[in-house]
Amino acid sequence: MAIKKPKVAVFKFASCDGCQLSILDAEDELLIIANAVDIAFFPEASRRMLKGPYDISFVEGSITTPHDVEYIREVRKMSRVLVTIGACATAGGIQALRNWKDIKEFTQIVYAKPEYISALDRSLPISSYVHVDFELQGCPINKYQFIEVMSAFLHRRRPNVSSHSVCIECKTKGNICVLVDKGIPCLGPVTHAGCGALCPSYQRGCYGCYGPMESPNTQSLSKHFIRLGLTGQDVMLAFRGFNAYAEAFRKESDAHEK
Asked: What pTM was estimated for this model as a whole?
């Protein structure tokens, strides 16, 4: 008698598909896992679409339309475990920059018939509408962290994804701190690890692609930015990037908005 494999699904909402491409980029590792699971629903990778329920659902993208709200609630109902992947799904994404503006003004400028556009006033993370079992940050996600998360839930254990900052990755790689040594504004001290300190390794400051680390001291970092000569506007913009609507980054950017 054949052993029934866990059913895995991957869903997309408002996003660029970058996190799904990171999953496919896992290649050899993904092939090994594919033998242990039934990839039942993954439009980015296959035309095979099996109906739920699913044992694990991975969700990329933010909620931006009334239809998204209805659909994510359906996804939640047919998923034993729901994991959000990437900055869009965990923090609203780059599209959350519209949350500080009037979207009706944008649609009137861009579209000839804005009355046909159905969109929510804000772009919000999946957790704003349904219960999420785990959030995997990144823009895009780290493929090895994704493999760890999938493996963890398949074995019914908590994922072992470190919550430390990018600074630890810099230290591990032997990088000289660009913030201290060169005075380059860097969000590394408050940003979740996962990128391998990519930007600081090339003498650039961290842009916060992986969102806030656990207990980030954003206020202290902002004060240091001001000492470096940045204006309040500069500090605000530094925190309004890929994870602009993540709570810690949002509050800090709001504190410096004129």
From this structure: 0.94
